[in-house]
Amino acid sequence: MGGTTGSKLSKLAALASRRAAWAGWCLVAISGAHAVPVRAEEIPDIERGRALYENHCQVCHTPNVHTRPNRIAITIEDLRQLVSAWAQQEKLRWSGEDVEDVVAFLNATRYRY
């Protein structure tokens, strides 16, 4: 790779990083939360959460478990704790980001806290 190509790639990568950071900040500002800059990697990936849920949780958890009258999770923090506990119980070795992605998916599609 020549010096010019490497320089162009570096500039493109820097631009992409700035755009992702700006998009994260805009998302927080639009949501009505306190306008605090958020890094793109801190924004949960709902589609990734869907994939994790479908591959690891959906085997036992039908959609009915999330809508039953006596459900355990009544706040988003409860949901986060349950997802984390089940990931540990099943020895999934999920990172905090994995848990947040699944929580974001469930919140967007089932709970809406």
What does this protein look like?
It is built from five helices and no strands. The protein starts with a helix and ends with a helix. Helix 2 packs across helix 5 and helix 4 (76-89) packs across helix 5. With 113 residues, the chain is mostly helical. The protein has two domains: 1-43; 44-111. The protein has helices spanning 3-30, 46-56, 64-67, 76-89, 96-111.
What is this structure, in a nutshell?
By secondary structure, this protein is mainly α.
Question: Could you list some keywords that capture this structure?
Answer:
113 residues; mainly alpha; 2 domains; 5 helices; globular
Layout of secondary structure:
Blueprint: H1 3-30, H2 46-56, H3 64-67, H4 76-89, H5 96-111
Helix pairs in contact: 2-5, 4-5
How would you sum up the major sheet? none
Strand content: under 5%
SS-derived structural category:
mainly alpha
Helix content: 55-70%
Measure the end-to-end span. 49 Å
Please, how many domains? 2
Overall mean pLDDT stands at: 78
How does the overall form come out from the CA principal axes?
globular
Q: Which residue ranges are poorly predicted, with pLDDT under 50 across at least 5 consecutive positions?
A: 25-30
Alpha carbon gyration radius: 18 Å
Strands, total number: 0
> What is the chain-wise order of helices and strands?
HHHHH
Number of helices: 5
